[in-house]
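subagent[fold] <- orchestrator: predict structure for attached chain, return tokens only, no commentary.
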Amino acid sequence: MIPSQIQNGNHNFKLKLGNTYNVKELLIKWQKASAADYEIEVSTDGKIYNKVAEFSGLTGARTDKIILSDSVEAKYIRI
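subagent[fold] -> orchestrator:
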């Protein structure tokens, strides 16, 4: 995972998968200093992103298992 940029005071991370994949499930392992509120966005070109999930009110070290209702094509994932 590569730290990407800060937008409106929020940090985001972008994963480049190398190829385009159908993504249905993500597993995020957070340390104690974790994001309480976050969105997951996907892109096939790294320029236009679509939000596929949103979470809020989460705290502490944890593992978030995200299962999307439908698989999505992604070459990039931004959290």
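orchestrator: received. Logging for downstream: The CA atoms of residues 17 and 75 lie 5 Å apart. The chain is about 0% helix and 70% strand.
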